[in-house]
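Complex 578.
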Amino acid sequence: MPIRRLAETTINRIAAGEVIERPAAAVKELVENALDAGAKRIEVILAGGGVERIEIIDDGCGIPEAELPLAIERHATSKLQDDMLVQISTLGFRGEALPSIGAAARLTLISRPADQDSAWRIDVAGGVVTAARPVPGVKGTRAIAEDLFYATPARRKFLRSPRAEAEAAERTVWRLALAAPHVAFRLVSDERVVFDLPAQEEAARIAALFGREAANTMLPLMAEREDVRLSGLIGPASLNRATSQLQSFVVNGRPVQDSMLRLSLRLAYRDVIPAGRFPVAALRLELPDDALDVNVHPAKSELRFADQNGIRSLVIGAIGRALSVPVSLASAPVAALPTRRFYPLPAMPKSTARGFAEAELALAALPVARTVFQEQDEPEPETDHPLGAPLAQILDTYVLAQAPDGSLVIIDQHAAHERLTEERLRAQFMEGRIATQPLLVPVVVEFPPMETARLLAEAEILARLGLEIEAFGPGAVLVRALPAALKEPDAASLLRDLAEEFAESGAPLALEAKLDAALARLACHRSIRAGRRLQREEMDALLREMEATPRAATCSHGRPTFLKLTRADLEKMFGRRA
Ligand code: ADP
Ligand code: MG
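Predicted structure with adenosine-5'-diphosphate bound:
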C-alpha cells in the first residue's frame, strides 16, 4: 500500500484512545477545563458510569462564539502563551481533549462568556461538526458527552461494568475536588448526590471527602525546603486501609498519581503499619513550574520532578517527624473509641484477634481494675513519666498503670515490646553492631524457586542484619545464623515474610528502604508473648523504655500499644457525670 496522510477524523480517533481511555478520563479533562476557565462552581452529572452521559456545568469564563469551532479542533488551545512548554500553570495545554471526546462520542458545548448576549452551541459526533448556533444559556460552559466510544467500538469493548466505570469517574472528581477546595463542587451519579460541597478551606474539604473518622484523627503536616513546600494532613498509623484509595497527591494544583510520591508515602509508613495495609494521606506539593515536567503522559497525571531525590526525602522526612511524636497521653487512643473500625481485624493473625478479644474483656472487667486501685498503696504520681507507675498486670497480658494526671493506662505488653524490639534492632543496626547467633545445626527452609532466588539476591543485606543464608538447591535455602535479638525465631516463617517483603518492594528500591523493611519484619518475629507474668520491675522497665522510644504509641503493625481512661471517662462510665 502507498503511504498516505491520515484523515483528521482518523487521527482524532487514534488520539482519543490515548487521551480518553475510559469515561473517568473524559470527566477529568472536562472538569480540568472548567477549573482552567476559573470556575467558582462546578457540577458533574454522570449517567451509566459516564458511558451514557457526562455533563459538566461551570460558571467560568466561557468560550466566545467565534472560538467555539477552534475549541474542538485538534491542537488548538488558549493556554500556551509560547511554545516552550516550560512554565505550565493551567491543567490543560495540549488542546487534545475536546477533539478526542468529539471523535469518540457525541459532544455538545454550550457556552457564554459574560460579555456575550446569548449562549452558543456546537455539536461534534464521531468527529463530524455541526455549525454553531445561538441558544439560551447562562454565563459559563456546559459540556455534554453522550454515548462514549460509540464511534470507537474497539475501545468500548474494554470498558468494565457501569458500576466500576462510575466508581472510577467519581474518584476522579473526588481527586479534583481535593485539589481545588476553593471551588464549589457538586457530583451526581445516576441521580444520587455523591457530594455537594461549598467553596471551603483545604482542611474542611479534606475532612468532607475523607470522612469523619479520618477528619478527627489526621495530623497536619508542613515542611519546606528551598522553594518546595509540602503541606497536608496524614493519618496516624492506626488509621490504615486495605487499599490506597484514601490517598491524594496534589502537585501545583494538579491531582496526580505519581509512583514516586506513592512509594515515598509507603516507605514513610512502612514500619508503623502492617504490610499490605495503606496509609491515609492528603498531600499537597508546591514548587516552581520549571522544576516540574507535566508533559510526560497525555493524561498528565504522571510527572517528572527535576529533583526526584530531594522531593522524596522531603516527603519521607516530614511524615517521619509527624509520626514520631514521643509517647504522650494526648497521642493515646481513648479506650471508649470504636477501636474495631480503626484497627480492622481481617489483616491480623489469629493470635492477635484473640488478643483483641482479651483487650475487650479487660475493658469489660474495669471494676477489677478499680479494686486494684484500692488495694495498692496510693502510688506516688511520677511527673516525668507520662505513662505513670505500674499498678498490676491482668490476664498476664496487660499492664495497668496510673498516669500522673490520674488516668488509668492499659498497656498491651506484647504490642509494646514489639515496637521496642524494632527500635532497638534499628539502633544496633545504625551503629553497625547487630549481634548474630550461629545455629548449631543449620536449618534448611524450602521455598518456591522464584522466592529462593529473590532471597539469595538479598543475602548481603540479610547478612548485615545478622541473618546468614546460602543457596541449597533450586527450592531451598540454608540458614546458618540468625540475629541474636530474636530469642526463639521460626526461621522458615521469618524468611518467607522477608521474601514477600522484598517481592513487594520491587527491584528499584534503595538499599536503606530494603533494610528498613527487613528490620520491621524481624521485629514482629521477636517479642515477649502475651501470657507471661511480669515482675513489678519488669513492668516499670517496660513503661520507662516506651517513654524513651520513638513511635512507641503503636506496634510495628500499627495497633496501639496502650489505651487510657481518664478520670472523666471513668466518672462517665460510672454515671457520676453526664
Ligand atoms: P486544552 O485544555 O489542552 O487547551 P481542550 O481540548 O481541553 O484543550 O480545550 C480546548 C480549548 O477550549 C481550551 O484551551 C479553552 O480555551 C477552551 N475551553 C474548553 N473547555 C472550556 C470551558 N469549560 N470553559 C472555557 N473554555 C473552555
Ligand atoms: Mg483541556
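The pocket of adenosine-5'-diphosphate (ligand 1) is lined by residues 29, 33-34, 37, 58, 60-63, 71, 77-79, 92-98, 141 (CB under 6 Å).
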